[in-house]
Specification:
About 75% of the residues lie in helices and about 0% in strands. It has 6 helices and no strands. The longest helix is centred in the middle third of the chain and has 26 residues. α1 packs across α3 and α4 packs antiparallel against α5. It has about 180 residues and is mostly helical. It is globular.
Amino acid sequence: MGVLAAQASAVCYGVADVTGGLLSRRAHYTYVAVIGQAGGLLLALVAAVLLSRGVPEGADLAWGAVSGVGTGLAMIFLYRGMGRGAMSVVVPLSAVTGVALPVLIGVTLLSDRPSALSWVGLAVTIPALWLVSRDGKQASGSFGASGDGLVAGCGIVSKLRAIGLAAAGAAIGLPALG
């Protein structure tokens, strides 16, 4: 059941990202991000009321708020880049940054020791990031799609880190299915 839920989540994220990116080409990216985040907050509040295991501790609520800020930041820059027509640069760059940056932070600051296969993955990722992020915009002072993707990736990292710091029992509990 967990695999099915993960696949459904991935599909929902993908559909939301593409839809948001396409809408950002017609409307200002900030509006698209704010409306999307407000909709997500509304659904989360309904789920919290219906599926709650109790009231979370204050620290867990604070980590949830930090996660929300990280998500909002990620969506603003993701939609800004996609609204500029740079979907093929912004999306992979933000995704890879969101995965590679925590590994690099863990190695440099927390003495983590990834497996050999993880190092191979990172070794492939660095040149891939460079190739993907070459959006062809050489204007000086221009933030560009690469910058949008990197900031979106950092927002994703802060979101995931904040979720990881909240207590395990603080999450909305879904009933066991099957």
